[in-house]
Each structure stands twice: as C-alpha cells, then as structure tokens.
Design brief:
single chain, 203 residues, alpha/beta, 16% helix, 28% strand, globular
Length: 203
Amino acid sequence: MKLWDISRELTAAAVYPGDPAPQVTRIQQLEFGDTCNLSALSLCAHNATHLDAPLHFVPHGDDVAAVALSHCCGSCRVVCFDGVLTGDVAERIVARYPTERLLFKGDMTVDISAAYVLADAGVRLVGVEAPSVAAADRSEAVHRHLLGSGVLILEGLDLSDVCEREYFLFAAPIKIAGCDGAPVRAVLLDDESLDVEPTFQRR
C-alpha cells in the first residue's frame, strides 16, 4: 500500500489574492530557556490545501465542522485536464469515470455549466490544484452551485507525483465550528491493484 501526500506546505503555498498570508509565531522557545517550543498560528481558513464548506458561499449552509466526512474520504478518480472544464467535457468525464470524488490534475478551472453536470451526476467532492475551483469572474456562481448542491470543494492540491487512476482519498478538514473552510492534510492511498487508464483527452 502506497501513501501519497497531495497537500501543499502551509507557509510556502500560493496565497489567493486578497487573503492574508499564514504566519507561524513562536511564543515559547527552548533556546531561550522555556520548557518547550510553542507556536501560534494565524491563517485564513482557505490557505494552502483546504476544504470549502457550504457556508463559504451558501447562506445558513453547513459549516466545516458539520460536513459529512463520508464525502471527504473514499474512492476517488484523478483525471488529468488543462483549461476550462465545460459542461460537455464534464459529461464525458463523469460518464467514463463514475465516482463520487473527482480530483483534477492540471492547470484548470470549472465553468458553471460543468458545475451543473458534476452536481447532477452525484459527485460529492471536486478537487483542484489551483487555489480556487473557478476563475475569478465565475467564482461566485460555480462555488454557490457546487456547495449549494452538496458538492464539497477541495482546493490547493498537489497532484504532481500521482498519475491518472483510482485511489482512496482521505481529506478530512480540521473541525472548526462556525467556519466556512479549513486546512486539510490530503492523502491518497494506492494499493497498486487498480488498472491504470489512459489520459482523458478533451475534444
């Protein structure tokens, strides 16, 4: 059984424009005679690898402490894709790879038409490598539809070391009541018994 860390290091990851950068402040230090090293964290809930909860864009939506862990953990499919994922391409992907969890490897964003397709297909989690699942001019519409349809969003992944195939995903967020998102230490489990399929080519 192989384990792949698909998370980005918190302080080195790109920060979404306008969000505060994470900071680690040492408040006790052994070298200064303290009994231990002790640090305080200051960060945006959407820094580095993180999960968007419905509350992020949906009024009165579930906070990150209330999200179903069954949506964050389970079998998934990594799909290589670059560009804007439109509805027609999303239809071909979900038809070829029926799964509740889709992780997209590549420089891509999700269009609103694809958000409708993914939600209608029963996808429960969509993961991307970018800091946001959608381009800035489509961000509100895409987030609102996915999250409002019960589709969790996993952003800021690092899929550079994994190939396109099926895995078991573990991406449980930190349990923070009242918060719209939380950092995740996302990992893939690979038992090497699954068949590797060829890369999906957009048409």
